[in-house]
What does this fold into?
Amino acid sequence: RGDLLPQPVGGGLLRCGVSCGLQLTGQPVGGGAEGCQFGADLLGNPNASSDAEVIAMAAAMIKALGLTEYRIRIGHIGVLRQMIADAGVPKERAAEVLQKLDKKLYDEARPLMKEMGVADDVMEEIFELTETVGDSSVLTKVPGEAGDYLRQLVELLDIMGVRDIEIDLGVVRGLDYYTGMVFEIEAPSLGAEKQICGGGSYTLSQIFGGSEVFSTGFAIGFDRVLLAIEKEGQTFECKGVDAYVLPVTEDMRMKCSEIASMLRAAGIPTDLDLMGRKMQKAMKYAAGIGAKYAIIVGAKEMESGCVTVKDMASGEQQVVAVADLVSKINC
It folds into this structure.
């Protein structure tokens, strides 16, 4: 019921989240049928700035992950939707045609479109459009509002520092709810399964009884990104925690939790012993996780408000007041 849905607010809304799902068809990428992705959607602002914002966000994330070999392909599904509608393809069957065009399956698209009454010469014009790829100069081939929109989008992206883009009017995307701009980010090192991110603009709220709300967004697949990072030979430094807090005796466990919370509140990455390890095993564990310091909480030292701090690199130990722990670890 539309009256029970959250009502539109005056400004835009950005929604981000992580989700996992199962791939039921095709060859799973990354060695398994389950995949996880990060998604972001910007709702409520029907303009090129919104599309530019989500593309720039996706590009920034890919770059921050360390990938250097990738390309951004941008198109406008509205152009193809209008062309096939003008050619006589019924609205309810548009998805069938778009799926064929998306995969460049022209031999399969021809009999399908012929059955719908599309003339041969019009078909060829449509196929030619899906092969239109290049820099912003190819936008001269995009008629009407869609062309103006894409030109504005490219200009905005250039201002935002996103310049290595390719205009590809054959970008359709597999999901048939897109209505305007569509884009994909590819990592060529992955071969045929090279898409690591995809998105576009859409309006879906009316399906659930709400008013029409412009939305645009994207999703980045973790599995393919990790594979692309591996293909490029990228490595990540595994950073340990700064402090590992452990009790000498069980009666000090609550005090350990208090100290660990204090360190975390100060922005210090801290691990807390929860396994009741003996001292020798605890030190071995601290070394294994790359802890800089082991914070040893004993009853005798706590009587004077102190703990024992062990430098895991040098092995040196000293008694430090709990009040001075943050400055000691940060020095």
Q: What stands out?
A: The chain has eleven helices and 13 strands. Confidence is low (pLDDT under 50) at residues 1-10.
